[in-house]
Structures are given as C-alpha cells and as structure tokens.
Amino acid sequence: MAVGLNIGVPWIMCKQADALDPIINTCNGYYCDGFVPNKDYKPKIWTENWGAWLSEFGGTYRYRPVEDMAFATLKFIQKNGTFVNYYMYHGGTNFGRTSGRFVTTSYDYDSPIDEYGLIREPKWSHFRNMHQAIKQSEIALLWSNPTVTWPGKNLEVHTFEAGPHNCAAFLANYNLDSSATVNFRDTQYNLPAWSISILPDCKNEVFNTAKVTVPTTQPKMLPTGGTFNWQSYTEATPSIGSWKTFAANGLKGQLPTTWDHTDYLWYTTDVTIDSNEAFLKYGQLPILTVESAGHALSAFINGQLAGIAYGNSQTPQFTTSEKVKLQAGVNKIALLSSSVGLPNIGTHFEQWKIGLNSVTLKGVNAGTWDMSKWKWTYKIGTEGEDLKLYTSEGSSKVSWVDGSESAIKKPLTWYKATFDAPDGNEPLALDMNTMGKGEVWINGQSIGRHWAGNKAFGKCNKCSYVGFFNEVKCQAGCGQPSQRWYHVPRSWLWQKGNLVVVFDEWVGSVSYDGKAILINGKRRLLISGSIHYPRSTPDMWPDLINKAKEGGIDVIETYVFWNGHEPSKGQFNFEGRFDLVQFIKLIQKAGLYAFLRIGPYVCAEWNFGGLPVWLNYVPGIAFRQNNEPFKAAMQSFTEKIVDMMKAENLFEPQGGPIILAQIENEYELMEWGIGSIGKQYAEWAAKMAVGLNIGVPWVMCKQHDAVDPIINACNGYYCEGFVPNKDSKPKMWTENWGGWLSEFGGTFRYRPVEDMAFAVSKFIQKNGTFFNYYMYHGGTNFGSTSGRFVTTSYDYDSPIDEYGEHNSNPDAIHIFESEPQNCAAFLANYNQDSSATVTFRDTQYNLPAWSISILPDCKNEAFNTAKVTAHSIHPKMIPTGGTFNWYSYTEAPVSVGGTKTFAANGLKEQLSTTWDQTDYLCVTIQQDEAFLKHGQLPILTVESAGHALSAFINGQLVGTAYSHGNLNTPQITFSEKVNLQAGVNKISLLSSSVGLQNIGTHFEQWKIGILGPVTLKGVNAGTMDMSKWRWTYKIGMEGEDLKLYTSEGSSKVRWEDGSGLAIKKPLTWYKATFDAPDGNEPLALDMNTMGKGEVWINGQSIGRHWAGNKAVGKCNKCSYVGLFTEGKCQVGCGQPSQRWYHVPRSWLVPKQNLVIVFDEWGGDPSGISFIKRTI
C-alpha cells in the first residue's frame, strides 16, 4: 500500500526484520551497532537512538549519560552505520490529554534541547562536536569498508581508507573499569574506559566519547515573583437522576462509554442500610472493595471522600478495599474512575479495558453484597467540563468563592485566577507541587494533566556512564512528584488578563526530597516532640499539646501501643487513655502535625515492647522475622490502625494532621543478629506499609537498608554524622534522647539543656531538617504498662515533666523562632575546656566551650546553646496537709489445695502460666521429713529467672530477693537458712514480675519466674532437689481475685484499723477514703515508707510502687561539656528510685475517693501522704 502511493522517496519499517523490498528495515534501541539490514543492498539505518526513557506518573526521571550515548553512536558508525536519528532531540510537552497511558505531561526525554526549547549541556555541545568529527570523516566512511584490528584485550581499531588522502580511524576501549593506551601507527592514544576516539585523518584525535569538555548546565526554576488571587468552586458528586446522567444495569466499560472525550466516568448507586445491621451496633465498619481495570479511582460515601487508589504503567489494574461509614437509611456511593491516557503499545492494545470490573460490600448481615450487577447511574465527565469552566465564558456560569472561604484540600475543586504575562522572554512553567491530580488550562487551552500527588518510586543511585545502558540504570527524583513543573508556552499568553484554571480531583500532599519533608510542595524544617497518649490522661492532652506548641513544636509524635489496644485477641480498646483518634484530633485542633509511629513493635520501655502477650502463644509464631503467623497478625493490626485514621480523614492528604508514619522500630540490630530472615522481614514490612496507600511518607528508624521509598532515620544522643541511605531522602532524627529511662534500683538520669541544644544545632548545621525530642512529655506508666524494671514514672527529664508542668524553659531548647532569612550562620566551638572568639564577616563573636551560636541573618547572634537565660525551675513537692485513716487486710500465703490453685510436677515458667494477667505467681510445697535440730539450720536455695521473690516458711516471711538496680541481669538467687519443724512444713514462694522485657533479639522467649533448681541443704539426706517435686500454683493474689481495689471488692473481706492495723507485715492490703485536695496543682502520693506493690485510686491503677528499692549509681557533679551518655549525669543515689506517684486529678471525685495499696513486703502506711507539685 505504502509503495503504491508513489511518494518518490524510500519507505522504512523500523524493527521489522522481514520488511519486503523495497522497504528498508531499520533498528530502534539504545545500541544498534550489531544490527544488519535484511538485504546487503539496504543501508544500515538507526531510526531511534533512544536518548533516555519516557517519564511516567509514579516513576522517576530517567536520564542517559552523554558519554554512553556518544559511545553508542560511534559504535554504530564504525560498524558501517550511515543514518542515526536521536529519539528525542527535543521531546517537548504532551499538551492537553495527548500523552499515552500514565505518561507525564512533560516529554523531556533528557533531550539535547529540553522541553522548554533550551539547550541542555553538555549533551548538545558534546553531540555537536561529535557530529563535526563524523562529518570530517564522511568520505572515508562512505567510500570504504573498515579494517579491524585488536591491539589488546577489549580494544578495537576500525580504519577506513578511501584513497591516499581520505583516512579515518575509530579507536575503541571496551573495558568497564580501566583506561587504556592504544598504539596506532606509531602514536599512542589514551582512551578512558568505555570510550571511542575519532581520528578523521588517522592521526589527530579530535573527539573522544568520554572526554566531555563542556560544563554541565543546571537549569534553575526561578519564581517570577507574582502571586495568584485564587477563587474556587467545588462540584458535588452526581446524584441519581441528575443532569446529564443515564442508568444501566451492571458496570460499563469506561472507554466505550466516554469514547475518550474525557478522563472521567462517574459510577453512582444507592445503598439502603437497615437499622438492624449489626455493624451499626458494634462499630465494625463494612468494607467496600472495588476492582478496577485502571487507571485511578476516588470513592465518595454520601458526598465525602472515602479513599483513593490508582495503578501504574506496568499494572494499571488495581483493587482497593476501604472501611466505609454507612448510616441507617439511604447511602450514596459515588465512584469516580479516571483514565490517565490510553495504551499506546502492546498486542491488541485497542482491546485493553479501563474502568470498574466489580464492586462488593462486605460486613453486612447478609455477608457480602456483590453490587456489580446492580443498577448504576452514569455520568460522563465532570460538571466543570460540561460547563467549560476552563474558558472565560464557562467560568461565569458558577459562583466562585475566594479569600478565607476558598476551598483548600477539598476534592473535586476548580480553581481560577487571572494574571498578567511575566516580563522577559524566558520559558515559563507552573509549579504544581502543592496540588493533587487533575488538569490545567491557560486561556482555555489545556497544558496537560497534573499529578504532583503521585510520587516517584524507583532506585536513584549514583550513575556511571560506563557499561550498557537500560531504562532503569540512571534515575533521579525518587520520592518527589514525577512531574512538578508544567510548561506554559508564552505564545498562549496575552499581555494582560490571562485566565488560569486548575481542576483538582484530589487534595494536598506530603512528600520529601533530599533536603526536607515537603508539605503541599513546600520544604519544611520540622521540630517534633514525643507525647505518648496512654502515658497521660485525656484531660491532660489539650494542655500538653498547647505547651508543646508554645515551645516551638511543629509535630507531635506518638507510638501506637498494640497491647493496650488489643489486650486479648480480637478484643479492642480505643477508649480513655487509649482513644488514639481523639488524641490525633486534638493535635489537629491545635494546628500541629502528627507523626504516627505504628510499629507495631515500639520498644519505648513499654511492657513487652508494645506487643500483646497472647501473640506469643499463637502456634508457630516467632516475633519480628520472616514468619507467617507474626506477619499476618502484624499486618492485621497495622491495617486496623490505618483504616481508623482513614475513616476519620486524619492523614494529611485527607485534610488531617498526620504527615508521617513509621513501620517497625530500630530493627537493624535484630536484622544483623538473625541474618537473611531479618532482611526478608524488613523488606516485607516496608512493602506492606507502602501498599496501604496512606498518602504520606513512611519512616524506618535505625534501619540503614530501608528500601525505597521508606526514609531511614537516626535515633540517639547525637545524629549530626548520620547520612540517609539515598541522596534523595531527607536527614531525619526520630529520637533525640533528652535523658534516660528510670529503673527500680537505678538513679534519675538527666541531660544538661546546654548539651541537648548543642546536639540539635550540630544536626541542623549538618543539613538536618527534622528532629524529634524523645520525650517532650514522658508521662506515667500507669498500671502494669512499664517495661522490665522500668519505674512507674517515665519523666525522662523532658521539657514538660511527668505531671504536665514545665521542666525547663522551652526557649532554652527550641532555637528557630525568627523569621526566615536568606542567610543564616552557625558558629561552633568544639573545645571542651575554653571559650573562643570567632571572627565572621568582620564581626567578633564570643562562644563558650562546647557551644554553637545561631545568626539567623548572618549578623546578629540570636541564640547560643550554652548561654541559658532562663532560670532553672525546682519543682516543690508540698504535702496537702490531709491524713489518711488506714484500714488493713493481710492475706495468707497460698496453701496446698487452696482456692484457685492447681498442682503440677516440676517448676512452671511464670509468663506462660500467668499470661501477664498479674505480676504474681505463688508456688507452694509441703515436705514432711523429720528434721533433728542441732542448731545448724538447713539452707533453702532458689534460682529464679526474675524479677523478685518472697519466701515464706509455714506462713512466715523468711526473706526476699531481687535484682539490685540492674536492668540487664534480672536473674536472682535466694539462699537463706530456714527454721523447719519436725513434721509437715509448708514452703511458699511468691515470684513477682516487674514488667516484661521490651527489647532484644527474641525477647519474647526470655523467661521469668522460678525455673530452679530449688534445693534444701542440710537435711539428713544431704541436699534435697525439690525442682521436680509436685508443686501447687496460684496465679495472682487473693486480693486481685476479689478485686479489693474496687469499692465493691473491698467489701468482701474484713478490714482492721486502729491497734489492729498491720504495720510492716507482708502481703497486706491497705485502704482509705479521702476528699480531693483543693486547687488544680498536679497531685502525687508520697510512698516513701512503703515496700513493694501496687496502688489504685478509685479502681484505677496508678502503677507499681517500690520505694524499698534504693538507687545505686554514681551521683557526681555533672558538666554539660563533652559528649553525653546515659551514665554521665545522675542524681538520687541511696534514695528510692521513685518516691512520688502521679495521681491524675481527673481520676478523683470531690468526696469519698478510695485509695488501695498492696504491699507484698510490708510497709508503714502512716507515712503515705498526698503531695502537690508546685513550681
């Protein structure tokens, strides 16, 4: 057919090996030197020398080093190629909706002339120089065949001679890792690796592919300085029977319905929910699942955006499942399917489908509704397209709003503004970095689809020109929008009164680049502070958040505590201190951002690292490794949290405050310890998290090999030396440790404010742009939530103390309060023993030792880390003046055959017996061997895996044992002489845990309790090993069984007072009633006269008390100068590790509050007093 058209020039068929004569078959690709035409009389033609690769929404920018492209071209020429076409030489722009499937509006293609028509250097000039060298060799190349020689390994010379005066030579070095010297016709030529030199006269080298002599140009995208006065119009989701709709049974294909006149097709239906639906009563939201053939989807329930989903160029199909809020009665489900260009390659690509395939609703009384064959209402395109809002005439058809009422982060919104043409003649573009997905028009002409909300995913490593190129070898822009700038041709503009219209079907975005987190396209230097919601009470949350805001905090960070939310499998708790949604909403109300560290392993000195104990007894489970039972449970909980946040629109792209999320926690040490199964698990966790499509970046702290697009981050006292694992990721400090945890038996560890400020400033001056104080408010480990040996207080020497009061002036720490300037300087003195004078720009500045000064304008010192201008605050613990009228009840050690006991041979491990429902496990045995007393008492020895032990003989306490101030060695040995009588003796051993391990490889396998041996030495038989005898067990205390800590439970026993009050008697419960102290100062109980146990106020546990455990450490005077460690600054040696116990005022009623104290050792309750914390 083509030949029959008689056009007078040859026809070509590229990549068509069997092209019929006279058609010339040709080559396309990155390299075509090996191509041979299908007939000897046809020339060797390269129709597409691919200069890079196309850019796709969701993909990176692919570029090709100029050295390799020149190398490929000369390889082709030296192998008798005579026609080369650069694809592309100028790529240009896919204006309107002209781009192929998922192809960006920009078609730059890394071309010698860029999208805007500007020369790209060095590519343009290097090619020009090569072209000149080729043309100088033209006669020899066209009128001779080469002679090929091989002067060395991976070296090759092609010599072309067409008579005595026309000689050209191509000298090639194919080595990938070394340059080479080639001797040609008695002259030596140096060739870099992977390069070719041209000698047009067989003598003088005029060009080498790897010797680039032209500097690289770095185009700048400079704001013009003008601003837009935007107006907005938000269209509603279409209703059944509304304008330009039609109905049909089943789901229609999008392309045969729209004929590609628009990217959009609405699918709308009504769902009637009966008031008897179980999910309305029990809160388990139904799940809407949509299977789509592509390309993107926005789901709306009753007019509210419920979720978005989209595919990619390789797999445009996707399935999305979202929990949706439906109400009793009629609910409108509106699904907006959008295409992103049509396929342009592939077998029968014209038959490929787009649009929805199936829709189901799971979780209704009937099980699952398949809605795919229901009657649906369809609307082709958006309302704004119908009205042509992108034109001057069309834009007058609706009412636009502006100013404070203009829609921000609202889906289905049109924006318009007018502007004058910027001065000059430079190419123009729109920076769309703050937008989501849609289209842009200038004076009625579409400049194309925008999709800044789709971030680039790929592998952005440093790229060498050496070696064969492919489309994934050289990538840039990971984590950034696939396209940020959109070309606006100047020829489309008038001098005055131009109209720009933007349609955005999505909302805002959070992303990152190699410098910072980007919120709606703007780089942000973010200061974050950790406040863990269950470590304070809901009534404290607003004040804590506001104090953080006043202290200069931008972001509130919190872990999510799995064992607090799911204490029993399938039984969830999101109330009270565990009302995570309310906490996040309060952060939003205060105008701050949130960083949600889901984990769900959190460490955090929290019981079992935040993992529920029941999880340890799932068959076949192994924590935090490539183990299917663990991954299934972890994914289920992670999805639950994500679904909750999505349902409440709490992620930033939904208009919420959450800008970052974290998966796993400090995993790299475990990964190193367990090897490949750890690496596999880390990669799985990352991919699982990314697949949840939350619209904000994910973080993995202390995870050097975090896979893209996860950001790896630093934890520690100093992080200025930390480097992210990719240049495309920002430098983040997720935990700036402000002190250290307190342990029973340990001192209080504090960190000088000067050093902490110094560490922050060092981090910022080394390009850090996100840091989080761990903790900003530490709070209280209420109940049994603390990790092993961790005190009930989690104060952590934070800027806001355990009670919610200022621990120090926040301005002493938060250092960036001035308006941003174009110049800022950090002056540092790292000397530890002397101050220094620094001259900077002709001005002298005095810097104390170990300090940094900040000059926000490069002139005036606004802050120095060591110049603390705020006075130190010394909180006072003042008695309220009231006294308690105590009553006591002492329970007896457990008897063999007692109530709620069971017997077993041998010693049972404590955690697997109690499942951490209590700290206590009592073990009892009777032995009836007669003992003849000769004054030498036998010795009872008990080996325990921890944490504390009380031993009773015939009901009398004979001794206690516990690990003294050593978190790392909880194992104990009890060995005491015991007074046994002839006949039957009862030995009762009370083993108590003090929190579960929360860190370490396979910590879930660590044991607690009496594991043996248990021996009695000095009897007639010598030594009795009682470890395998039959023991009687009781889980917990009698008082716990009776719930003596409640009003109802406390009425079940007889209490003693007055002369009958038990003093320093083990296993004693104390109760008293009191009225709430006057005032609003924070309250605490002074437990200094007590031993070890737990305290309850009105039935709620304020935590473990252990004033009998005195602090061991090194309490010396501490200087801020020099590197800080957790052992450097200590106070409280010889005192109780914790004396005062926080009592939230919200737990009190005005009159007749009930306080219950259990003391397993025995104490003097007369010394307990209420304390007010004042400043």
Structure, described:
Residues 808-821 have low confidence and may be disordered. A hairpin with a 2-residue loop joins strand 27 (438-442) and strand 28. The strands form 17 sheets. Strands 35-36-37-38-39-40-41-43 form an 8-stranded parallel beta barrel, surrounded by 4 helices. Strands 24-13-25-31-27-28 form a 6-stranded antiparallel beta sheet, with no helix packed on it. A 6-stranded antiparallel beta sheet has the order 14-23-15-20-17-18. It has 16 helices and 68 strands. It has 6 domains: 2-208, no CATH class; 239-381, Galactose-binding domain-like (Jelly Rolls, Sandwich); 525-814, TIM Barrel, CATH 3.20.20.80; 822-868; 892-1036, Galactose-binding domain-like (Jelly Rolls); 1041-1174, Jelly Rolls, CATH 2.60.120. It is mainly beta and 1175 residues long. Helices cover 12% and strands 31% of the residues. It is elongated and about 125 Å long. The longest helix has 20 residues, at 628-647. 45% of the residues are buried. Helix 12 packs across helix 13.
Record the SSE blueprint:
Layout: E1 12-14, E2 24-29, E3 45-50, E4 61-62, H1 66-78, E5 83-87, H2 123-136, H3 138-142, E6 147-149, E7 155-161, E8 167-173, E9 180-184, E10 187-191, E11 195-199, E12 207-208, E13 231-234, E14 245-249, H4 254-258, E15 264-273, H5 278-282, E16 287-292, E17 296-301, E18 304-310, E19 318-323, E20 329-338, E21 356-364, E22 367-370, E23 375-380, H6 383-387, H7 392-395, E24 401-402, E25 413-419, E26 428-431, E27 438-442, E28 445-450, E29 475-476, E30 485-488, E31 498-504, E32 510-512, E33 517-519, E34 522-524, E35 526-531, H8 541-550, E36 555-559, H9 562-565, H10 580-589, E37 593-599, H11 628-647, E38 658-663, H12 668-674, H13 676-690, E39 698-701, E40 711-716, E41 732-737, E42 748-749, H14 753-765, E43 770-777, E44 825-829, E45 836-840, E46 843-847, E47 851-855, E48 863-864, E49 876-879, E50 887-890, E51 901-905, H15 910-914, E52 920-927, E53 939-944, E54 948-953, E55 956-962, E56 972-977, E57 985-992, E58 1010-1019, E59 1022-1025, E60 1030-1035, H16 1038-1042, E61 1068-1074, E62 1083-1086, E63 1093-1097, E64 1100-1105, ...
Parallel strand pairs: 1-2, 2-3, 3-5, 35-36, 35-43, 36-37, 37-38, 38-39, 39-40, 40-41, 41-43
Antiparallel strand pairs: 4-29, 6-7, 7-8, 8-11, 9-10, 11-12, 13-24, 13-25, 14-23, 15-20, 15-23, 16-19, 16-21, 17-18, 17-20, 21-22, 25-31, 26-30, 27-28, 27-31, 32-33, 33-34, 42-65, 44-47, 45-46, 47-48, 49-68, 50-61, 51-60, 52-57, 52-60, 53-56, 53-58, 54-55, 54-57, 58-59, 61-67, 62-66, 62-68, 63-64, ...
Main location: secreted
EC number: 3.2.1.23
Domain Glycoside hydrolase 35 catalytic: 2-133, 517-807
